[in-house]
Predict the 3D structure of the following.
Amino acid sequence: MKFQQLKELFDLPLFDLIKKSREVHDANWSDNEIQLCTLLSIKTGGCSEDCSYCAQSSRHNSGIQVERLMEKEEILKRAQIAKDTGSTRFCMGAAWRGVRSGTKRFDQVVDTIRDVSKLGMEVCVTLGELGPEEAEILKEAGVTAYNHNLDTSREHYPNIVTTHTYDDRLNTIRNAQDAGMSICCGGILGLGETNDDRLKLIEVISEFNPQPESVPINSLMPMPGTPLEGSDPVTVFDVVRMIAIARIAVPKAKVRLSAGRTQISEEGQALCFFAGANSIFYGDKLLTASNPSVQKDLKLISQLGLSAKQPNPNMEAPERECDRELSPCCAAE
């Protein structure tokens, strides 16, 4: 969707916007199911990037303890626990700029992915920048989806990150798509951006060809020692509006109510689900920030008459629409 279309939607009274987003949701997702995802940091801290929001950057004095790449046996143990407690997608994140084939750490991660994929859950990874070769290897190893958020608009991005560019991120997404992986790509609210920045982010994401399989909507969790530690929190209505906009703009994607759920009441989360969210990160921790407890989440889902979506580890990536203009994330035909 184009920016002006998104702006017209955004300017609607909130209930009118939600009415439209709910219609889109019901037309594409009639199952009343919520995807439960668990995110595990398999390598924490010591990242060379300077992302202003991230406690894992070595450039910030956040107090995060640097940890080496987790052993495969421990990752498999955590994955099994996630499966046993209801998660259907297991996401592994590593605080790296990127990965390169032929290196020890990449080979270790690929070996771990092969074993995690045998557990019957969808497998998602976020490892930083990918080249075409690395993307192909990850797909072959069993990765269902690659997470690579754009965070904010192209215009605001240099205010948040200077060690890589917006195009670097778009190139990684293109490489993952060309390898046949689904894309999980969203943004973060509360980075000092304007409403126009938020809409420009959704505009770019909606014009991916194919569109992302899932779109996480994160709220900044200001971390001590980072440049954004004193940022004002976003409101639940900010989150609801962006979920509704994302649902309309990317109708067939899972829209994930992601980081920042600890700041949203159960009533607020219910409104997010009604506006079009149908996926959450689930568990006691989300990388370096806390997350609502497992039992609390399950109780809320039950109270709302919703259920957990079953895993689909053999899910095919969305197909490229050849009859529309190629987006920046599509390789030239």
The CA atoms of residues 20 and 273 lie 14 Å apart. Confidence is low (pLDDT under 50) at residues 285-290. The longest helix spans residues 14-28. The chain has one domain: 3-307.
